[in-house]
Specification:
3-stranded antiparallel β-sheet, 0% helix, globular, 147 residues
Length: 147
């Protein structure tokens, strides 16, 4: 099956990966040159100060669940349900040290908790009309050997 990322600009470019296709692509935010504020997703101006310029900043692949909830009903458009319709999923904030990232949490209900160590992954968001599986970023439980 053919896949694509929901938005290439959320991830480091293939050229930035130094030809290491084994390593998963990482999320890219932006860092202010003046006050060092980090944001995700990228933006052109700093939310804290008027003087800095924002530059691409690759984010860590692991962090901790800061807060979470269950998305039990379909969100408003532009949400597109997956094949077979909407299924409830966990959504939350992940603390990556420099920034909190809102993301899907690919964590079973019995494991999810505030403070849970998690690691970046991708999950299916929906299928395009041509059958292409559209992938989005998410976080899954981090295994002991990954720490």
């Amino acid at each position: 099956m053919t896949t694509r990322l929901i938005d290439e600009s959320l991830f480091e470019s293939r050229e930035d990966r130094e030809h290491d296709d084994q390593r998963p692509r990482r999320l890219v935010g932006a860092r202010c040159s003046e006050c060092a504020t980090v944001v995700f997703p990228r933006q052109d101006s700093c939310p804290r100060c008027p003087d800095g310029t924002m530059a691409a900043h690759v984010l860590p692949v692991s962090g901790r669940v800061w807060s979470w909830t269950l998305q039990a009903f379909p969100p408003k458009p532009p949400y597109r349900p997956p094949a077979g319709g909407h299924h409830p999923y966990h959504l939350g904030y992940v603390d990556l040290g420099e920034v909190l990232v809102e993301a899907r949490l690919a964590v079973p209900r019995e494991e999810i908790r505030i403070g849970l160590p998690v690691r970046l992954t991708t999950v299916s968001a929906y299928q395009d009309d041509d059958g292409t599986e559209v992938m989005t970023f998410a976080f899954r439980p981090e295994r002991d050997e990954e720490r």
